[in-house]
Amino acid sequence: MASGSFLLPPSLLVLAASSEMVKIISAAPSLAGPFLWLHFHDCFVRGCDASVLLDSTKGNLAERDAKPNKSLREFGSVERVKARLEAAGPGIVSCADVLTLMARDAVVLAKGPSWPVALGRRDGSVSSATEASDVPLLTRIFASKGLGLKDLVVLSGAHRLSTAHSPSFADRLYNTTDNGLVDPSPDSEYAAKLRLKCKSVDNKQGRSYSMLSEMDPGSYKTFDTSYYRHVTKRRGLFRSDAALLTDATTEEHVRCVATGKFDDAFFRDFSESMVKMGNAGVLTNGDEDIRPQLEKLPAD
Q1: Cβ distance 185 to 234 under 8 Å?
Q2: Is 226:219 a contact under the CB 8 Å cutoff?
Q3: How remote is the C-alpha of 31 from its chain's centroid?
Q4: Minimal CA–CA distance to 13: which of 103, 100, 93?
Q5: Is position 41 annotated as part of the catalytic site?
Q6: Number of domains the chain is built from
Q7: Is 158 found in the same domain as 113?
Q8: Disulfide-capable partner of 228 in 39, 69, 149, 258 (CB 3.0 to 4.6 Å)?
């Protein structure tokens, strides 16, 4: 992103977005995670351009309908915040900016850190499920966005706010590929508890009971560093969590944060990494436009 390409945030519009988020999160605190994941999944495909919000059309399957994005939700809440901003100041805050602001506010309202969000992103008009489903290793994804291994570890801490339906982790618990293998990385007691919520898998139909599981049962609504303690005990919900212990650099950082002695430093690091990620692949003035709503892709 070129220096000076962003406008200063219109403070009243930012406050309008934040006040709407307060209402949403107050009514449903568990939504902090979904808003964060919308931002993540948007930025790690074509950059932070709100392409994840575009609908599929007859001739094009969009990102939001790709298999890795099936768990994304709360598009209606994004529409609600966007509508509030359009009413207050039409054509000023893009959908890409809305996703970035909502992710920041979601973390703050979950008692996590805050960080500055400059406005000026433009909305993309291209969205393809193929780009979202053909994903390389996480380290390559991060490197392509100018993020390093430390950023990977720090941003993985957002899984603290995660809940997930059985299909997203069932392949860690059961032999879903008929190769006789089950993921050995989860702690056996933790895996047994997960199986109680994800009780069976129909290999032929690719189905599992879609029960909702939390990364940290009973306390996933608050942002803190307990995620790392779960990972060190091999109790991460996703394969990407377990992968953090397979690299010496990422494992060292995970175990350091897991001590609970560096929470302030972690909050600073998380804020810095979120700013870096939020600036990845940004479209600026002259590249694209500001969508007035979460509209469909143009017809082919």
Answers
A1: yes
A2: yes
A3: 12
A4: 93
A5: yes
A6: 2
A7: no
A8: 258
